[in-house]
Amino acid sequence: MNWVPCIDRSDGFGWECRKSINGKKHRVEKSVREGSWFEKANLTIEETIKFIYWWTRGMKQNQIKEELGLSPNTAVDWDMFCREVCEVTITEKSEVLGGPGKIVHIDESKIGKRKYHRGHMVEGQWVFGGIDEDSRMCFIVAVENRTEETLLALIKKWIKPGTLIVSDCWKGYINLEKHGYEHRTVKPFKRICK
Predict the structure, then answer these.
(1) How much is the pTM?
(2) How many Cα neighbours within 13 Å face the side chain of 88?
(3) Phi and psi torsions of 25, nearest 5°
């Protein structure tokens, strides 16, 4: 196989093999995308890389759509794809964190949107996660509620005993020291609105 320019392909290049078998000439072409996750993408590889780069840099979906000239549906699809890759990566790469001498920060949050665009009432899914201060390894899991019982079970599953756990002042964390953890609290940042 040789790497050759292909003007009829959106990426401009492809793999080509020319052989003679039993005196007959054969020519086989393959896309550079074959066997990769680019294979079914409708964007060019350049557009895909730009989209992913800008997405990881926090550029808004609408800005990326305008820069690349994408349809709204394509922009939404790629945004969701990037989110799914992150979700799968975090799920598959999650491991037990901490241990003696280690610090793990934990928090719970509700992911969703404000109800009726007013106040702080949010409709959505509760999640709980932690991040190791040194290794930056993390875990995040969906939870039904944030009761002490629920959170403690997850802390025992994801964080080794002897770890210094840093959290907000949520009452669900009040008994961590009784379960073999050190515990420090930080007050959450409060926004003052006028």
Answers:
(1) 0.61
(2) 6
(3) -85, 135
pLDDT value for 25: 83
pLDDT at position 183 is 95
Give the C-alpha separation, 99 to 63, whole Å.
Answer: 43
pLDDT tens string 47-69: 999 999 999 999 999 999 999 99
The 3-state DSSP composition of the chain as helix, strand, coil percent (nearest 5) reads 30, 30, 35
Answer for the pair 105, 167: CB distance below 8 angstroms, yes or no: yes
Question: Are 175 and 148 contacting, i.e. CB atoms less than 8 angstroms apart?
Answer: yes
State the first-to-last Cα distance of the chain, in angstroms, to the nearest integer.
Answer: 66
pLDDT band at 121 (very low <50, low <70, confident <90, very high): low
Strands 2-5 and 24-31: unpaired
Tell me the C-alpha distance between 22 and 19, whole Å: 10
User: How buried is 139 (Cβ within 10 angstroms: 0-12 exposed, 13-18 middle, 19+ buried)?
Assistant: buried
